[in-house]
Structures are given as C-alpha cells and as structure tokens.
Amino acid sequence: MQALALWQQQQGFSVKDADGILGPHTWSKMKPLLGKTTQQQSSTPSSVPMHACGAIAMPSIFTTIQFSVSKEIAKGASESSYNFTRRMIREIDENPDIWYQNFVKTTFLGVSFNDPIYIELANLLKNIETKFINTYDPVKRNICTVRQRLGITTDSFSGGRSEPTAAIKSMHLFGLALDVNMMGNPFIQNKAIRHEKYTQPNGVDTINDLLANADRLFGVATIRFQYHLSYDSYFSINSALTRYFKIMNDDAMLQQALNTTASSEWKSRNLAVAKAKIQKDLDTLATALVRWTKRDQLRNNGFLNLSKEFVDGMVAGGLDWGGAGYGDMMHFDMRITGVGKKIHDAISKS
Length: 350
Ligand SMILES: [Zn+2]
Prior knowledge:
Elements: H1 2-10, H2 24-43, E1 64-65, H3 81-91, H4 96-101, E2 103-104, E3 107-108, E4 111-113, E5 117-118, H5 119-134, H6 143-150, E6 156-157, E7 177-179, E8 193-194, E9 199-200, H7 203-218, H8 231-246, H9 251-260, H10 264-267, H11 271-288, H12 295-301, H13 308-316, E10 320-321, H14 322-326, E11 331-333, H15 338-349
Parallel strand pairs: 4-6
Antiparallel strand pairs: 1-2, 2-5, 3-4, 7-11, 8-9, 10-11
The structure holds zinc ion.
C-alpha cells in the first residue's frame, strides 16, 4: 500500500491522490508502464534499469552482507590490504570481522553501487539523500528529477574496494568512500607518473599550461589550478578550459579570436594551425587524466561535471570532497565524520 502511494507520488499524483489505492486514475497511468516492465524483465531478468524513476530512495533499514579485502600485497604496498585494514580497525578498538560483516548493497539517489559500502556510510548517505529529496515539493518529488537537477550522469557509483587503485591506503578499502560520475570527474594528479610503456604527464601542470594558452588567445587571466580551491574556482577554471576546447568547432569564433588576440604567438597562426594546437592540448590533457578514449567528453565537459548543489549537499552531510583536497574530483569519503574520522586519523598515524 505504502509502495503504491510512493509510486503515485513519483508519478506526479498530488498528495491527495497519492492515497495508495489502485483506482482508475492510477491504473490508467500504471497500465502502460506495467506492460513495459514485463517486457524488460523477460529480456533481462536480473537487470533493473538504473535510471528508472521507480528506483527510488535507499531503504530505511539495510540488510547487511559480508565484504572482504584482498590478501595480496598491492604494487607499492608493504602489506596486504587485508592486514592493513584489520590493523587500522583494531587501532580504533573495533572488531575487523564485525566491520566487514556490516556492509550493505544499496543505492544512492536511485543509482546502484558496483560494490557494497560500510553501513555507517550508507546511513550517512541516506540522510543526505533524504535532504536532497526533501528540497522538492512533495507533489513533484521524483528521484529522476532530483538526480537530473543534481547532475548525476552515471549508471553506477564505485563504493567499497577490495584492492587499492591510486591510493594504497584508500578509504574505499574500509567501505567509507564513494566515487560519483567517474568518467566526467577524473583524478588530477600533481606529479608525472611513470607507467611501463609511457609517462603520464603531471595533471595539474598540464591544466595550467593549457590555461596559459587559452588565456593568451582570449586575453583573459584565469585563476590557476591547484589543490584546496573552492568549488567555484574549479568551476571557472573548467569553464575556461572547455571554452578553449570548444572553439575548435567554431571557425568563425576562432578566426575572430585570432584576429583580435594580443598574443603574437596566436596571431601568427592560421585557422588550421590554431586548431591543431588546441587539439594537441586536448590530447595532452587526455593523456594526463587517463581519458584518451573520452576526449569528446573532456572537450565538452572538462574535468568537472558535478553540480555545486550536489557537492555542497555531500559536504554539508559530513563527507569530504577529494576534488577540493587532492584533485580526486569524483571522490567523497567519511574522513571528517564519526568512525571515518577515527579510521583516517589511524591511517595518518600509521
Ligand atoms: Zn575514490
């Protein structure tokens, strides 16, 4: 009954109409959707479309499951993730066995996690989700609309992790972190990274080199990228970068910029040479941010597609944004709150 009332509200019924009763009005809206659902279920029985508007809200009570971290020693680490996490959890007087029995497979804003998260993070996200949803008039409340307004563009979030990726001592290993819109919000590292076959350029330096080129072309002075800036600063840096990339597709605008620029370096270039220069810059950035196959997305959206409302809401709810701290634009974790702070303090001392 309650589920039906909720569904009715999601479909835009007024509170008066969302009475949990399957009347003719509800049925007329539900019938075509039921047909569609049956079809989807028969072709892919286990896959619920992530962006379905019905996939609302995290449950009020979570069902816990077991999670395990790797017993292998990762490259660059001195002990296995298994031993490391157990050591840290004992350090804060918690029981590692109980810790890893208290993971949950859940959603956030109707989007699934690809791996479970620790229950404390799930509870915190539940509060944040409720606040995001409650900013809506109950009549118009619908998880799709909320998600769209917040700018969530992904099919899944990254949650718990059994092995470290970039950071050896990652909060993901404890189930205390999540990555949002992974493709649109890369990690911007402040050093070059030597891989087996190539060297990944320093991300921060690359962005700043490109900004310098863009600023000379347009005759403006954009703030330079560095860690610990505000969301607004990153947003304006990102806007300057994407403006530079997008002008490749607008001959008239680019020609006008070349005609009016004060930079002798740009003035000497014709349209084709100028375009080649911007393309090369885009390619370098794609190499630095590991987005070679996503250069179109990088050109259009740059390194940040999270909305200010979303980031502010996450931070107000007790999460630390890696974008402001250390260039991990997609990353949020519990290092400033509750048990997450305890774990993070233990990691810092280790
Ligand atoms: Zn992360």
